[in-house]
Every structure is written in structure tokens, then in C-alpha cells.
Amino acid sequence: MKNISTKLPNVATTIFTVMSKMANEFQAINLSQGFPNFETDKKLTNLVTTAMQKGYNQYAPMPGLLSLRDVIAQKTNSLYGSNYHPETEVTVTSGATQAIFTIISAFINPEDEVIIFKPAYDSYEPSIELFGGTVIPIQLSAPNFTIDWKEVADKITSKTKMVIINTPHNPSGTVLSKNDMLQLEALLKGTDIILLSDEVYEHIIFDNKEHQSVARFPHLRERSFITASFGKTFHTTGWKMGYCIAPKDLMEEFRKVHQFNVFCSNHPIQYALAEYLKTPSNYKELPNFYQHKRDLFLSLIKESRFTFTPAAGTYFQLLNYESITLENDVKFAERLTKEYKIASIPVSVFNLNQQDDKVLRFCFAKTDDTLKRAAEILCKI
Ligand code: PMP
Ligand code: GLN
């Protein structure tokens, strides 16, 4: 073929693939791509094996196994005091990425504007552009990444179709407050703007903070999709399982696309998750589990030349390296991988115009031993 016209001229291979590949090639400790390097609970893998042996090996119902949708609805209600109907308002997806892509594809038309906050998870923008939407980026500033809601109000036009938020936030590790959500609610009330609230790290939040799910705010809830990921919650990123919840009228549109996008998600895993979710401690223990890892990592690097604000949520920690070098963050991340054998993610790739704030993102979803070895290296830089 001589002339392939690309739909995504500005898209290269995602940074997560680039850095994990480099980490493997140079045998570096991989704190770049976000995934745990420890196993999930044996009870969960045993449940999957049982489901396969019992014969749950054919297609699941298109919107997901009802028993799983039931426990998802119960969990949402008990945590956030919000009722979603399991039959019409919950859909199981092949990871949150699929849910996000399907939501965008179901609603975004050419010329529609979508407001996103940068640094942003890298799947949002290309998904919007594929459907002809226009990305309206709002750059947030390190170290607090707070949203100026007046700036958001200024960016809303008659073309604004969707706003995408993400709390707890990847890559910054910050969380939105109740006040943030109330301000957003006041802005969107009375409009037809859809809110996509990416809440994949809902259970990874520290220092006794409460996750401010959109589900808690009636005037946000009525216009929102919430996306969630079992990969993050149960240390199973490779299973690519997640779900989304939304009011019935929005979910109907979602399912029109979902049925032709994936039809359904992995059946035996849904069966296992439905059982496993019946024990709330399986996700309620997550904040303590990851706070221990965050605190261990930060205590071990406190004498290093990196500076930081402790992550409030997610399993990512940003480290500022200005007192070490002023080189570009992509170059520095490459050098750390090749020379020091530690891989991270340069945050500029998620920023507007690749703004370089001299910060790298490190994933602390690792065994204590890995974190100790990583910290030893970081302290020598
Ligand atoms: N959103 C954010 C902010 C993420 O960090 C991730 C992690 N990859 C996802 C969505 C996608 O989750 P999943 O692996 O379930 O597709
Ligand atoms: N969410 C993970 C991260 O931010 C990785 C996702 C991916 O590899 N696509 O590192």
C-alpha cells in the first residue's frame, strides 16, 4: 500500500509500552507502567478456575453477568449512597479503557468539544479525535494540580458535549475534593453536557480521605458515566476487566455501541468477580495496603535529591528532579533506565505541548523488596 491516510497523525506508541520495553531491554526495575509485581489473591484465581471447570466458557450476557452487576450496584449504593439498577444501569466491560472508548464513541460527533484536564491519561485524547471531536485541554500545575473552576466555566461553549475528570488522578496522585465536585455540579447543572468520571483508583486513596465519587452528587450523577477497573482493585491488570455505571437513558446509548464493540466480556472471570465482591474487605483493605507502600517508598527516598508531595491516591508517586539535573524529563527517564536501571514515566508526555515540569512518575504497586531496591538506586542519583 502506498497511501495509507492515518486517522491519528500525531499518535505514536503509548509511553507505557515504550518504557516497559526499555525497562525489559536494560533489565531495569520497572516502576514505569502501572501494574503490581505481586500476585492477586489465590481465592480469586481459584474462583476463576472453578468457573472454567463448571463450564462458564461461552459468551456472557451482553451487558455482563447479572450476579456481578448486582454486587456492583450494591457496592456503589453502600459506598456512595446512590442506587443504580443492575439490569439497566450497570455494564461490565473489558477494562476501563474499553468503557471510556465506547462512551466517547457513543456520544462524540465531529465538532463536539470535550474538556479534559492535563496531564491526562493517554487514551482520552486519541479516542475523542477518532470520532472527530475537538479536545479542549486545561493544563493543571504541579505540585497541587488544583482545578480553577472559573477557567473551566470560561472554556464551556455551546459545543461542549463532554467533560472528562479523573479522581484519584493518574499521573499526579491528587484527588478532587467535595468542594471541587460541588463547583463542577454548579457549572453543569441545567446543561446537556455529559460527564465522564474515570474513577479507576476509587479504592486507592490515603490519609483517611473519602473518595468523592460522582455518584454522591445528584446533579452530576444524572449526566455521568463512572468508569471502574477490577485490574486496579484486585491486582489483575492483565485480565482487562472493568465496568461502567450510568443512568438508564445514557446506558442505553452505551450498549448500542458496546454490543458491536466487544459484545461481552470474559465470562468465567465475571463469575469469579461476582463471588469475590461479596466480601467487601477485599476492596476496603486497599487504602491501608497501598498507604503502607507509599509510606515505605517515601521514607526510603527521603534523603535522596528528589523532592515530592506525597500522593493522596492512586499507586503513583511524582518525584521532582530539579535539584539533580535540568535535562528534559523524557531524556532523563531514558537515562535512568539505561544507566541506573530504574524505569519511570516522564510526565510531560501527558501535558499540553509536552510542558516539562521536571517530574517523573514512579509506580509503587510493587513488593516491599522491589521498593527497597528501587529506593537504594534513587538515593544514589
Ligand atoms: N483510566 C486511568 C486513569 C488509568 O490509569 C487506567 C489504567 N490503565 C485506565 C483508565 C484503564 O484501566 P483498564 O486497565 O481497566 O483498562
Ligand atoms: N494505567 C497504567 C498506567 O498509567 C497503564 C495502562 C497501560 O499500559 N495502558 O501506567
List strands and helices in order, with pairings:
Layout: H1 15-25, E1 29-30, H2 42-54, H3 66-80, E2 90-93, H4 95-107, E3 113-118, H5 124-130, E4 134-139, H6 149-155, E5 160-166, H7 178-188, E6 194-198, H8 218-221, E7 224-229, H9 230-233, E8 242-245, H10 248-261, H11 267-276, H12 281-284, H13 286-300, E9 316-320, H14 329-340, E10 342-343, E11 345-346, E12 359-363, H15 368-380
Parallel strand pairs: 1-10, 3-4, 3-5, 5-6, 6-7
Antiparallel strand pairs: 2-8, 7-8, 9-12, 11-12
Helix pairs in contact: 2-11, 3-11, 4-5, 4-10, 13-15
4'-deoxy-4'-aminopyridoxal-5'-phosphate is lined by residues 34, 95-97, 121, 166, 170, 198, 200, 229, 231, 237, 240, 242.
Task: Outline the structure in words.
- The protein is an alpha/beta fold and 381 residues long.
- The protein has 2 domains: 15-40 and 285-378, Aspartate Aminotransferase, domain 1 (Alpha-Beta Complex); 42-282, Type I PLP-dependent aspartate aminotransferase-like (Major domain) (Aspartate Aminotransferase, domain 2, 3-Layer(aba) Sandwich), CATH 3.40.640.
- The chain has 15 helices and 12 strands.
- The chain has helices at 15-25, 42-54, 66-80, 95-107, 124-130, 149-155, 178-188, 218-221, 230-233, 248-261, 267-276, 281-284, 286-300, 329-340, 368-380, and strands at residues 29-30, 90-93, 113-118, 134-139, 160-166, 194-198, 224-229, 242-245, 316-320, 342-343, 345-346, 359-363.
- The strands form 3 sheets. The protein has a 7-stranded mixed β-sheet with strand order 2-8-7-6-5-3-4, sandwiched between helices. A 3-stranded antiparallel β-sheet has the order 9-12-11. A two-stranded parallel sheet has the order 1-10.
- α4 (95-107) runs parallel beside α5 and α4 packs across α10 (248-261).
- The longest helix is centred in the N-terminal third of the chain and has 15 residues, at 66-80.
- The chain is globular.
- It starts with 14 loop residues before the first helix and ends with a helix.
- The mean pLDDT is 97.
- The chain binds 4'-deoxy-4'-aminopyridoxal-5'-phosphate and glutamine.
- Glutamine binds next to loops.
